[in-house]
Amino acid sequence: MKIVITGGAGFIGAALIRHIIRNTEHTVINVDKLTYAGNLMSLAETFEHPRHHFHQLDICDQSAMAALLNQYQPDAIMHLAAESHVDRSIDGPAEFIQTNVVGTFTLLEAVRNYWQQLDDKQRAVFRFHHISTDEVYGDLEEGKLFTEETPYAPSSPYSASKASSDHLVRAWHRTYGLPVLLTNCSNNYGHYQFPEKLIPLMILNALEGKPLPVYGKGHQVRDWLHVDDHARALMVVLENGGIGETYNIGGHNERKNIEVVKTICALLDELKPCTHESIEKYQELITHVQDRPGHDERYAIDASKIATELGWTPEETFESGIRKTVEWYLDNQNWCESVQSGSYQRQRLGMEA
Q: How many domains does the chain have?
């Protein structure tokens, strides 16, 4: 297949491209605006590959997207381009509405016009795969799991913008017949993740002896999914998922945030013992800070549908995945330094309220 991947220089998009180039014969057309979180260094091993074509484009530019589709005649679109950090959405929601809502609408229209011009055989195989988040479901009670039928109740500007984009995709399927697939994933982690997110932020702060800011008591629960497991799942859905279907993708790894931070500290104690003055263990750097506005207490995915119908289950446990992740950040300090050369220096975001 020829697959257009939007947001291909981002964390999940880059992992997906690396997976496709390593493990399939598909050709990738990588579309990315290269905002602060997009980094082509994450694609160093695939960038010069003959099956990888990169275009720096904005999904909000419908004419540019239409030209790209006409140029490559793709068999599928995998739409990952999005503003994705909750704290950043609190400080500046407008960008999230523009990219996640307007951008998805603009892309859908370009894709619809392209798809309607295909012949019957091409239309039958074409897919638009929209990649979303479990945060659209909102807060979750203890003992329950998000299923594909869970009602939407987004809490943040970020999750509301992603919920909006999900609804647009379903509407374009229902109204225009566009063959779509949707996936909603739990919290991703792994190598090449921009250090505004919890796990890389904690690793890099600890190595520099900086405070490890934990929101509130750190009792918020998330289901952690290794990004390589997610990449495998996305391809399984693209190749075998039912048109119009939604699949929840989770790691079966529920952890409280404070547990995640303490696990990172323990691994760092083992792999790179602390040499900072005044502390013996990295855990002493943990600092409880004011919680962010509207912070959901718990997310957890029921991933039985994708397991039962498509045969996907995660390969990484949290213990194996977090060890690999910490080891990767220890071994790739140059990448960490390069992606923080701009305005973001791991400062606290999301304080607007």
A: 1
Looking up residue 20, the CATH number of its domain turns out to be 3.40.50.720
Residue 345's pLDDT is what? 38
Residue-wise pLDDT tens digits, 276-315? 988 999 999 999 999 888 888 999 999 999 999 999 999 9
pLDDT confidence band for 341 (50 / 70 / 90): low
**176 labelled catalytic:** no
Catalytic residue among 32, 58, 87, 135: 135
Let me know the angle formed at the C-alpha of 332 by 336 and 223, rounded to the nearest 5 degrees: 75
Q: Which domain holds residue 145?
A: 2-194+224-255+297-316
The closest of 181, 190, 183 to 12, measured between CA atoms, is 190
Nearest CA to 286 among 212, 202, 343, 179? 212
User: β-strand 212-215 against 2-6: which pairing, if any?
Assistant: unpaired
Q: What is the spatial distance between Cα 232 and Cα 237, in angstroms, rounded to a whole number?
A: 9
Identify whether the C-beta of residue 33 lies closer than 8 Å to the C-beta of residue 81.
yes
Q: What is the DSSP letter of 101?
A: I
Q: Would 207 be classed as within a structural domain?
A: no
Given 158, 189, 192, 329, the catalytic residue: 158
In a domain, 350, yes or no: no
Active site residue 280: no
pLDDT of amino acid 352: 52
Please check whether residue 342 lies inside any domain of the structure: no
Q: What is the pLDDT of residues 126-142, one digit of tens each?
A: 999 999 999 999 999 88
Q: What residues contact 352, with CB distance under 8 A and at least 6 apart?
A: 90, 91, 293
Rounded CA gap, 265 and 350, in Å? 24
Strand partners, 129: 78, 181
Residue 55: pLDDT band (50, 70, 90) is: very high
Q: Does residue 250 have a pLDDT over 80?
A: yes
Q: Is 135 a catalytic residue?
A: yes
The overall pTM is greater than 0.90: yes
Give dist(CA 185, CA 11) in Å, integer: 14
Inside any domain, residue 62: yes
Given the residues 32, 134, 166, 228, the one annotated as active site: 134
Beta-bridged to residue 249, according to DSSP, are: 185
> Whole-angstrom Cα distance, residue 13 to residue 290?
32
